Fold this sequence. Notes:
Elements: H1 2-16, H2 26-31, H3 48-55, E1 69-70, E2 79-80, E3 85-97, H4 116-119, E4 121-124, E5 129-137, E6 140-149, E7 152-164, E8 169-177, H5 208-211, E9 219-227, E10 231-239, E11 254-265, E12 268-284, H6 285-288, E13 300-318, E14 321-337, E15 344-345, E16 350-351, E17 357-371, E18 374-385, E19 401-413, E20 416-427, E21 435-445
Antiparallel strand pairs: 1-2, 3-4, 3-5, 3-21, 5-6, 6-7, 7-8, 8-9, 9-10, 10-11, 11-12, 12-13, 13-14, 14-17, 15-16, 17-18, 18-19, 19-20, 20-21
Amino acid sequence: MKKTSIWFSCFLIMLTFPDAAQAVPGFARQTGLECFMCHTQNQTKLNSFGRDFAHSGYAMSTEDGSQSLIDGKELGLSLPTVLNLSVMLKARWDKSNDAINGKGRVLESKDGDDIDSNRGLYEVYKTSTINIAGRVSENVGSILELREKEGKAIFGGKVITAFDTGNSYSGLAIYSTNNYGPFTGMETYNTGLYKPLRQFENHKLTNAAQASDLGSGAATGVQVYYAGEYLFATVGGYVPVHNSDGIDIGSTIIPFTRLAVEIPLGDMNLVIGGYGIKGHARASNTSFDPDLSGYIPRALVTVYKEAYGMDLQLEGSVLDLSTLLTVNAVFKNKTSLSNPLLMGDPTIDVYGEPEDAQTEAYSVDLEVNPWPSLGLKVAYLYANDKGPHILEPDKIDAKDKHALSFGLDYSFRQNIMFTVEYSMVTPSRLDIANYTDALGVITISF
């Protein structure tokens, strides 16, 4: 009872005296602008100005010199005097009813007791990050991120060189991530191709790019891009690994491309885009999945990737209400392996990633803000995995589903947000029962 009272008191204090928690993330410190200059509705989604800031390589600063620079005399420097350090803290509560694992089995112990989200998960710091981000020098910016995963410190990020060509930016991004997918270098729309830019926290049940694993996972690569007033285009190459150990440099790059067109429609802005990935990468099995080290012999594996789809984003004002609609259609996301048996050993029940899968998925997400601080949202997802899953046949069709989700985002301040989401899932496999998932998240950025 005492712990409950303490938490409730803290909650009331935050509501009553929100100015006490008015910390501002690093980009706001760099530009001297409020967070909602770049973000629409809440922290996680970018608006047109936010897209421009990203296209500038995060190097844009205000003319009034809100953050002073150290300029070089003989050689250019333009280095900020203040290190843009930011922290994003997340506290999550997740409670499911009959949720399943990747093989379609209900999350329970051998004795039939609920485990994981079926029992209820309380997570603090699991998805929190520490970032050093922003301007490095003129035309150069970066995001460097430190996060925790399964008790390990994971370091990733990207460095961008961008050039202002009048009404457009052109640039080059080099990146490495264990979590955000192949479009990490430069992707600024809220359709889920880049994992951080989506509408729902529960991404696997609400977004096609995330449910199909197209917009997530390990990736190290390079992108060149053009971002004009009405056109965004990028091409690049990546390998689906986060570390460099064991990579066969001779055949590692999987090419990808992305094209999007923006069309103004009165108070709305329509974005129609498409994307494609096709190629192969060759690396050690322990590079694709370091958790395999020590369990199976090290061997080179070739991963073949083929994916393509279309997305749509409609943003603006409807009846004076801020509205964001996103649609993503992943027509195909196929991963195949030269020898799946090199990614696991059934005799000792050890299996690694990537696995052989072929997924299609479709999602529609809508959020409307009755007030600037409150967003109401709904999402529908259909996913179908046609992969053979040679090593783990129990996974066949286990991810096939229809999901309907509802949620709300409430911003106490621009950098403090409370999220509640509820999903109802109907699996396609007849031996898997319907299940639900409830999620609550508090996000604080400073």
